[in-house]
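User: Sequence in, structure out. Go.
Assistant: Echoing your sequence, followed by the structure tokens.
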Amino acid sequence: MAPAVAAELLRLRGSIDNMDAALIHLLAERFKITQQVGHLKAAYGLPPADPAREARQIERLRSLATEAKLDPEFAEKFLTFVVSEVVRHHETLQRSTELSPAGVTPATTGSDSPAD
């Protein structure tokens, strides 16, 4: 491989690595917030999933993906995967709240729907 090509490949891969790190940090922050949503839902006996909200989010992200020149099918699959993980976490929180004699108090929790 020519040195100029190797240098350009290294530069591009460095940018990809930086973006991957940013994505991981963004996902971590998103999951911290959705955990709060799960605690709130568990405290108030709300269902772990909100299909209407999820449908609105999918529509919104498909539109954003199209505007950004990203495959909307990919965006939907990605969101569906993330939401399924969030719902799984919310279900776990609900089960642990049901098993807890003291339950979860609203003052110590905060949460929203999976697509948030």
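User: And one key feature?
Assistant: Residues 3-43 form the longest helix (41 residues).
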